[in-house]
Write a structure and sequence with these properties.
alpha+beta; Jelly Rolls; 3-stranded antiparallel beta sheet; binds 2-oxoglutaric acid
């Protein structure tokens, strides 16, 4: 399409261990495939723990299930603005299972965060500082539909020009991100990447089992994919062995593929964002106390506990880390 580069399969990123190659692939195509990002022993521990956790959440009626044909991702509310938690359950057609807040759900997932092989690539995309935006798993199950194409930083404001009307940032929704809908011509200016995603394959990923669909080069399109305009857009399925990671520029058009096999496709997604953005998962409230008390400085920083340029503080902007258990200054009076 007019916004997108043309390519043949030979041009596109292949699984590589070469970090320089991987960074160049992200620059040109919006993604790379990092081979052996995680050793098999860690992959196996994470897969085992994930299956155990997912089964237990399902058994207790806590599972979040999407990928059904009548489900609308992002449409968490009904027409009266009420949140509909039951919309993402198997009884309403949900097939794939999401497991949220992995940092709370076992040592295997904390150990996975110790791998910093991909930090260099995330730093290449996001710069010196970044935090975790979400840390989740997506189990694409047999029969799960392809997820609509989207970008992960849908909330990131687009460039505007002097005198142009723009959609005020507080009026963004998952369905509306600018005033005019998709631009008719490629924009001259692009918003930079604000997030970068690492998807770790716990099983071999193939086109048949729901390998992530990607639109190569779409990170430079300067707009969101549109259901009508881009209905026929060329996608590829990311494929690789267990332990391989897909690392993306947050502007790339992508989504889970349809799983046409009879086995689950287990994957973990670590999404990073710049330190100035609101993470999707609120770790400063939601992290369990036993995880926080054992956390290294690096983990605390990744979870957003390090104050950044005075932001994220609870009072004094010069402190390094916030302490959720600290007693804050309240109402005071001199006698
Ligand atoms: O699981 C995948 O293949 C991709 C998931 C995805 O695109 C998302 O959760 O935004």
């Amino acid at each position: 399409m007019h916004y997108l580069p043309t390519w043949t399969l030979d041009d596109l990123p292949k699984p590589t261990k070469d970090l320089g190659r991987a960074k160049a692939d992200v620059d040109v195509w919006g993604y790379c495939l990092l081979k052996d990002a995680v050793p098999m022993s860690v992959v196996e521990r994470c897969r085992y723990r994930l299956r155990e956790q997912a089964a237990a959440e399902k058994e207790r009626g806590l599972a979040f299930e999407d990928g059904g044909k009548d489900q609308q991702w992002g449409d968490f509310k009904d027409h009266n603005g009420r949140v509909r938690p039951e919309a993402f359950r198997a009884e309403n057609g949900g097939i794939n299972q999401r497991v949220w807040m992995l940092a709370n759900k076992g040592q295997a997932f904390l150990d996975l965060l110790e791998f910093d092989l991909w930090d260099d690539i995330i730093g290449h995309v996001l710069g010196d500082k970044f935090i975790i935006h979400s840390y989740t798993a997506n189990i694409a199950k047999p029969g799960g539909m392809a997820m609509p194409l989207h970008i992960d930083q849908w909330w990131s404001p687009e460039p505007t020009s002097r005198g142009n009307k723009y959609l005020p940032v507080g009026s963004f929704t998952r369905e509306r991100f600018n005033i005019d809908g998709p631009q008719k011509a490629p924009p001259a200016m692009l918003a930079p990447p604000a997030v970068s995603n690492v998807l770790i394959m716990l099983d071999a990923m193939t086109e048949a089992n729901g390998g992530t669909r990607l639109v190569p080069g779409s990170h430079l399109a300067g707009r969101h994919p549109d259901k009508v305009l881009d209905a026929e857009v060329n996608t590829i399925s990311a494929e690789g062995p267990p332990g391989c990671a897909i690392i993306t520029d947050g502007r790339i058009w992508h989504g889970t593929g349809a799983n046409r096999t009879d086995t689950d496709r287990n994957a973990i997604l670590i999404t990073y964002c710049g330190p100035q953005y609101r993470p999707q998962e609120n770790y400063t409230i939601g992290i369990r106390s036993e995880v926080l008390s054992g956390a290294s400085e690096r983990l605390k920083e990744l979870l957003g506990f390090r104050v950044w340029c005075g932001y994220g503080r609870t009072g004094d902007p010069t402190v390094d880390f916030v302490e959720p258990a600290a007693e804050e200054i309240g109402e005071l009076k001199n006698d």
